[in-house]
Structure prediction request, 436 residues.
Amino acid sequence: METSHLLAIMSFHPFEWGVIWSLVPVVALLFCSALASGSETAFFSLSPKELDKIRRNPNTPVNKAILSLLSDQDKLLATILIFNNLVNILIISLCNRLIDRTVVFHSTGWEFAIKTVAVTFVLLLFGEIIPKVYASYNPSGFSKIIALPLNLISRLFKPFSFLLVKYSDALQNRGLIQPENISMEELEDALEITENPSETEKEMLSGIVQFASKEVEEIMHPRMDIVAIDEEENFDEVRRIILESGFSRIPVYKGSIDHIVGMLYVKDMLRYVGEGGDFEWQRHLRPAFYTPEHKRINELLEEFQSHKVHIAIVVDEYGSTLGLVSLEDIIEEIVGEINDESDVPEELPYKELSEGVYLFEAKANIGLMEEVLDLDEGTFDDCRGEAETIAGLMLESKKEFLKRGDKMSFHGVRLTVMKVAGHHAEEIKVEIEGGK
Prediction:
């Protein structure tokens, strides 16, 4: 801007030493504004580890003040906001007076624009941005600096903060203020940017985030893997199945596994372990608990708790048995695989025969096959339909029972049925056509 244009907009008063002294309260108030703004960030950014450290030593005046302030976070936030706004109003008022003592404006429009820009810049830079950035990097240290003064301010402003909190509560109770719902996508994004989580913590947090969106069919043991007992079996056979399976609860069926008549709890049989083969073990069955395949696992967990059961039979819309799900299966979705002394190491559901050629269990997941073959996730989505397993992928295409020697190709991958038991495939050879 040229000097002539500048003089047309404003001119300066002769210098006075009193102007320098007028800066002192402005700087002091800016310092107070910075402390208030930084304290909001610092107190609400304290990590659980830092809070735990403070709680372990609660008798120092500073730690005592921090714990007192955080005991009522609504009141703390109201106090900070009231104090910060009062200080900012005083800063704006004093800055306007200081500018009027220094500058003569010849245009009302320019006077408003320059005053607004200058004061806003000073307030934002020194009263908001710098202290909040510093407090976000050092919340514990900043909290300890401001704790005692803020505790005193909290007592002074107690009537005002009390009214503000009560007014906010009244608005929320009337539905005028709605708490913001966080979507699963936002939680997953937050997890991705979390700093330095251990692999175990990350897996557990991810499990919690996805917990409510999973359905029973995603975690159940499929029908073909269920160990069940025919109610017509004698007690000698029942004993053998119990010992070989190692399970504590076993479904009992009549005629076929689609007609589950109850659950046999092994602990109920302990007192009868010496009985003969004609022992009427069927009299000790407990009712079976059923759940549909599309029920959310968080809802099933609540049902397990309310009904005090640990296992459920998964059925489809026609009542046919699809699989079995246990309390342990649900918990493993959060904490990962749980192994106890009765578990044996689980073998991989495939083995490599040669380069690019593998023998998979037919019930192996399609996603695992994609991973082993180093294919993009979802390679077979266009041809898998509702199938989750490799055998299901072939059934989706053939539309009838698989037989030994059946061959099919999908996206450059050849599948060959190698072993069949009854009406279902047990082993399938998977190979990249033309080699890897």
The mean pLDDT is 80.
